[in-house]
Amino acid sequence: MKVLVLGGVAAGTKIAAKLMREYRANEVIVLNKGKNISYAGCGLPYYVGHVIENKEELIVNTPLKYEKLTGVKVLTEVEAINVEPEAKKVTAVDLKTQETKEYTYDKLVIAVGASPVKPPIEGCDLENVFFMRTPEDAIRLRETIDAGGIKKAVVVGAGYIGLEIAENLKTMGVRPFVLDMAPQILAPGFDKEMADYAEGKLSESGIPVVTGVAVTAIEGNGKVEKVVTNKKAYKADLVVLSAGIRPNTAFLKDTGLEMFKGTILTNEYGETNLPDIYAAGDCAMVHNAITGKAAWSPMGSTANIAGRVIAQNMMGAKISYRGTLGTAVCKLPGINVGRTGLTEVQAKEEGFDPISVVTIVDEKAHYYPGAGLLAVKMIADRKTERLLGVQVVGDGSVDKVVDIAVTGIMLKGTLTQLSDLDFAYAPPFSTAIHPFAHTLNVLKNKLQGKFETFTPAEYADGAAEGYRLIDVSIQPTTEGAPYVELTDVNGLIDGFDPEEKLLLVCNKGKRAYLLQNRMKFYGYKNTKALEGGKFFSDVEAQ
Question: What gap in Å lies between CA 435 and CA 373, rounded to an integer?
């Protein structure tokens, strides 16, 4: 079988290599526009910050090494410019010689990736304006910083790459400002209260973020001097544009391929609407594992998972790709973030009746050196108890909780089914009650009416208006609020009527739950506990 693969980074190289492993007699050719194949795109910010020291470490495979390893023929600096599906023919141009050539195929894979969005504003071509997509981008940026003279930088885009770049700029002694049009960072994968909490931690670490602001121009005399927005201007010696990516599919517009906003639609087998044409990676749509709807997941992980499935299907299998959950983790200064599944907002939009809880949990045994804290938000469907999503923010290992959630969601697990899993425990690694299990137990209590709360989002929106705040921390910490010592409550509390609306607040939420449990027993009917306590929310007595 003669297979032509357009694109040679994550999806393209995965499919090509798997095809040759499946059947060594296949003839597989990869046409790649760039010089490099199979490079570590997610590692680029860390090369900028000298965490990854040598640029060679960014290149997972050279064309020659890959050819010897797999048997795949790789042609670099060759760009596909036209596809004729009926003739099963691709026209491509050699970017070194400008010579055009036709390539025939039995089956075609389109994995041409995506390119950074270049905002339609003046000044994007000034010196010291960078994108962050290829190894060449990272190399040029680091060389500029290493040369000296860069004191302030503006990063446009508060997604994963933008925030990682900001962190690494800071480690290099550059003061970064992050700007984003969205009303929050890390949109849309995190609910606003989780994003706002992470944003606060970034600010504390010396990385200010301004959301809800549009860049209108980049100004300077040949070189960047300032970034102008619809609100104010920011002085800058350097700008990194990380405002999203766009699929490289313009050359396919007359092929008859079905697309959505330039992204190729595929079915569960990786097939397009045209016979013998498959698509994968950042240029292709997959589907959401929970909703079944088309979803764009421009992640190296998705590219590799879908690519493996596609290669097997091209060889005659009939394997369905179960879909993406949008799973992601990100290391930031002083804090890590991770998520999977649906946010609470998305769950409502998809017709679920979501219930959520926010807990503050120890990442490992609290007495073990280096133990961190995690803020975990868990979302489930109220009626079925099906787990829908998890978001984690903290200074510990967020990936463990996220990966457990991925397993539970993909298996369509309910809170009950996931409540007694035998997680690994030892003080250097976890707590006796795993952070995932702890949060799940709290959510079950809430679902069963045993834990009546205001979420941090509800509290921020004013849901506690009319409630009298009680400080139930280990020591009084809320000025102007009455203090109640949990262990002294063995009946009605002087000064508090059983019918009164009472908001119970402690540092993390646990003591508030314990007090609520006691007060309910003694006849108090209108108590609410604040999830996450003062650790997560700014609390003031009314």
Answer: 10
